[in-house]
Amino acid sequence: MTILIEQPIFDSQFDVKNVDSNETNELVLDGGFSMPKEVSQNGFATPEVNSFGHSFRDYDAESERQKGVEEFYRLQHINQTYDFVKKMREHYGKLDKAEMGIWECCELLNEVVDESDPDLDEPQIQHLLQSAEAIKKDYPNEDWLHLTALIHDLGKILLLPQFGELPQWAVVGDTFPVGCAFDEANIHHKYFKENPDIKNPAYGTKDGIYTKECGLNNVMMSWGHDDYMYLVAKENGTTLPSAGLFIIRYHSFYPLHREGAYTHLMNDDDRENLKWLHVFNKYDLYSKSKVLVDVEKVKPYYQSLIAKYFPAKLRW
Question: Which tens digit of pLDDT belongs to each residue from 164-173?
Answer without folding.
Answer: 999 999 999 9
